[in-house]
TrEMBL record, chain A:
Residues 5-67 form the HTH iclR-type domain. Signal peptide: none annotated. It comes from the Bacteria. The keyword DNA-binding applies. Keywords: DNA-binding, Transcription, Transcription regulation. It comes from Nocardiopsis coralli. Residues 68-248 form the IclR-ED domain. This is IclR family transcriptional regulator. PROSITE patterns: HTH_ICLR, ICLR_ED. It holds the Pfam family IclR_C. SMART domains: HTH_ICLR.
TrEMBL record, chain B:
This is Glycerol kinase. The keyword ATP-binding applies. Pathway: Polyol metabolism; glycerol degradation via glycerol kinase pathway; sn-glycerol 3-phosphate from glycerol: step 1/1. Belongs to the FGGY kinase family.
Length: 251, 504
């Protein structure tokens, strides 16, 4: 078994040191506190700076923890937070498209519905926040498969005769979605229903969820076989607006 | 003919907004601008009335430009506003004689105490529906007359004008000096039965009638705008909570809306008769459409709801953002026996106890931060229940549906708990901007953009709905415990502590 690597241990010690000093520390202070010679400390700090884990304040020259480190720990976006930020945009998507809206995030190998807005008509509908949908048979899930490297699905059960059950077909589909930047499916989860979705990204460009509309094929279908272009643009606009919202405010 | 829209101006406590709505009641364009909060002394809050007007002009113009809408496409302008905030200005020059005194400002504390003297807080309640309190405009006018050099004389000579913010904006837009019944109902100066300025109250407060605007309905053409939207009818005015009631299409007696923000405002439509509350609620105007009979309302507010969540975030650090309260609360199935009554500055409706202070009750070694988060959400629900019970008792109508809006409605768990403790359906409308929507609706009705309230009702769509899932035995048991916790808040502030913030 290989031994421990001293420089990594030292780098970790410096990171720990900086985490206790939000205002930043000078090279001299870092050297004194850590007991490392200035030259050694500087080499480690420069390397950490290069990978984005440490940054140097322009005015004071002090070192502090960098943004790259913060993003490691906060990959997870709270679903309730996402709903709160998305509320107005999801409402206007439902209002413009005339269809029900759902926002989904990855939960193990499924889509967790974190927000649901009713279709704006007088029909009786039930809130399905908290329910789980299959990744491969919904456009919400296909977005996550295409844009979230962690998303995967161990098996591909059929829900209708149109559900994608072959891994190769699914790979082709997700490749096409990456290319287009949005997803749609018809009859793949429920016969007669179509869905259109687009990715929600945070300020680091990481896909944290997907927003989409779902409804009867007759209402959503456009002139060709695919969905109505206008409704696609509503979905993509809403996704972009929510992404902006997530980027605008640091959390 | 090109597409027509309604412009709704919302002049609020922290910002001014303008939203353009289309015929389906959908938002077409929004612009917003914040203004300065001026704090000259502890407890004093002012706005620069000229800045408010400038911002209103800017957001009005920008909301049109953002969506390439031309002034002739605006069918009418509606106004909703922060209530009670008081402006007095020179009739000739239009120059305010002092900053606008904001509703939260407590400088009229002494005036209010003096007026209450022997006859008590409820001295004018039978006339104006309100207890004597620092919020309302009447005492603020009195303060200005007493403290601004030469103002009383100028007021008596009719050289200055008073207005709440609706009046200030309408005057700037059209040159007309008018207010609507809902805004007038927050001055303490209007008789809620006759809908006219009341001589008894005017006399007692020493306010000359000459400075007061004409009281009009909430939905009629007050005049035509000048400036950028020259010729456009200015056709509605409603205080913010009244506009939200109207925007939520609470047109029938018994309809209730709840706006959940840092605090919560509950308003119930009680029909065409003013109901005097036996249970500590305020009697107020709902709205008045043109020549139709005025519609009355009961109002109850809860001081601490969303701000309790902020307290958990900022003071206790149990969560890092407000929405996380739901995540934390969902780590447990119930409150674990823990109840929080956030009587941070006393208990308001329906208790009105300034000697109460907050408690966290029922603690055992079993209670975790998840239980505390749950108790925080439940506190909002039980406080709502207490106000709703008071409304039901006063109106003899049982609530069946609560229409909610405001930031806290994003919390699905809270909405479910609310439905459970009220044993009623809770619905969130598709258009969350109910305040602006209400002002737009009232203006649109006045100019025939919408034919009738039935059309508006058809525009209203549910975005979400929650139904009670709690069995009644459990509900009664929990309510019983909540009431026990409330009793433990009482008598906390003793007389010598009275100066440490026991002002309600």
């Amino acid at each position: 078994m290989p031994g421990r690597i001293q420089s990594i241990e030292r780098a970790a010690a410096l990171l720990r040191l900086l985490s206790g000093a939000p205002q930043g520390l000078s090279l001299g202070e870092i050297s004194r506190t850590s007991g490392l010679p200035k030259g050694t400390a500087l080499g480690i700090l420069r390397t950490l700076q290069h990978v984005g884990f440490v940054e140097q304040a322009t005015e004071t020259g002090h070192y502090r923890l960098g943004g790259g480190l913060l993003s490691l720990g906060s990959r997870y976006l709270d679903g309730n937070e996402l709903r709160t930020r998305a509320l107005n945009w999801a409402d206007s998507l439902a209002s413009l498209s005339g269809e029900s809206v759902r926002i989904g995030t990855l939960h193990e190998h499924q889509v967790l519905v974190v927000h649901h807005v009713f279709r704006p008509d007088s029909s009786r509908q039930t809130l399905d926040v908290g329910s789980l949908l299959p990744l491969h048979a919904t456009s919400l899930g296909q977005i996550l498969l295409a844009f979230d490297p962690i998303a995967s699905t161990p098996d591909l059960p059929a829900f209708t005769r149109h559900t994608i059950t072959s891994p190769d077909t699914l790979a082709e589909r997700t490749e096409a979605i990456r290319e287009a930047g949005w997803a749609w499916e018809a009859d793949e989860l429920v016969e007669g229903e179509m869905s259109v979705s687009a990715p929600i990204q945070d300020r680091r460009g990481i896909t944290v969820g997907a927003i989409g509309v779902r409804g009867a094929v007759e209402r959503l279908r456009g002139d060709d076989d695919g969905p109505d272009r206008e409704k696609v643009s509503y979905v993509r606009d809403a996704a972009r607006a929510i992404s902006r919202e997530l980027g605008a405010t640091p959390f | 003919m090109s597409q027509q829209y309604i412009a709704a101006i919302d002049q609020g406590t922290t910002s001014s907004r303008c939203i353009l709505f289309d015929r389906d009641g959908r938002i077409v364009s929004v612009d917003q601008r914040e203004h300065r909060q001026i704090f000259p002394k502890p407890g004093w809050v002012e706005h620069d009335a000229k800045e408010l007007w400038t911002n209103v002009e800017v957001v009005l113009q920008r909301s049109l430009q953002k969506s390439d809408i031309t002034p002739d496409q605006v069918a009418a302008i509606g106004i909703t506003n922060q209530r009670e905030t008081t402006v007095v200005w020179d009739k000739e020059t239009g120059e305010p004689v002092y900053n606008a005194i904001v509703w939260q400002d407590t400088r009229t504390d002494d005036i209010v105490r003096e007026l209450a003297a022997d006859e008590g807080q409820d001295r004018f309640r039978h006339i104006c529906g309100l207890p004597l309190a620092t919020y309302f405009s009447g005492p603020k006018i009195r303060w200005l007359l007493d403290n601004v050099d030469g103002l009383r004389e100028r007021a008596e000579r009719g050289e200055v004008l008073f207005g709440t913010i609706d009046t200030w904006i309408i005057w700037q837009l059209t040159g007309k000096h008018v207010t609507d019944v809902t805004n007038a109902s927050r001055t303490m100066l209007m008789n809620v039965h006759t809908l006219e300025w009341d001589d008894v109250v005017l006399e007692a407060l020493g306010v000359p009638r000459a400075i007061l605007p004409e009281i009009r309905s909430s939905s009629e053409v007050y005049g035509e705008a000048r400036g950028y939207l020259a010729g456009t009818p200015v056709a509605s005015a409603l205080g913010d909570q009244h506009a939200a009631l109207f925007g939520q299409t609470c047109f029938d007696p018994g309809d209730v809306k709840g706006t959940y923000g840092t605090g919560t405002f509950l308003v119930m439509n009680t029909g065409t008769e003013a109901i005097h509350s036996e249970n500590g609620l305020l009697t107020t105007l709902g709205y008045k459409l043109g020549d139709e009979d005025a519609v009355y309302a009961l109002e109850g507010s809860v001081a601490v709801t969303g701000s309790l969540v902020q307290w958990l975030r900022d003071n206790l650090g149990l969560i890092s953002s407000a929405p996380e309260i739901e995540t934390l609360a969902r780590t447990v199935d119930d409150n674990g026996g823990c109840y929080i009554v956030p009587a941070f500055s006393g208990l308001f409706a329906p208790h009105w106890r300034s000697d109460a202070r907050g408690v966290m009750a029922g603690l055992t070694g079993y209670v975790t931060k998840g239980h505390i988060a749950r108790a925080v959400l439940e506190a909002t629900a039980w406080q709502t229940r207490e106000v709703v019970d008071a409304m039901n008792a006063d109106s003899h109508i049982d609530l069946t549906t609560l229409k909610v809006d405001g930031g806290m409605t994003a919390d699905n768990l809270l909405m479910q708990i609310l439905s459970d403790v009220l044993d009623a359906e809770v619905v969130r409308p598709m258009v969350a901007e109910t305040t602006c929507l209400g002002a737009a609706y009232a203006a649109g009705l006045a100019v025939g953009y919408w034919p009738d309230v039935e059309t508006l009702r058809a525009n209203w769509h549910k975005a979400a709905e929650w139904n009670p899932k709690m069995d009644s035995a459990k509900r009664e048991h929990e309510y019983h415990n909540w009431k026990k916790a409330v009793r433990r808040t009482l008598d906390w502030v003793e007389h010598e502590d009275a100066d440490h913030g026991d002002k309600v």
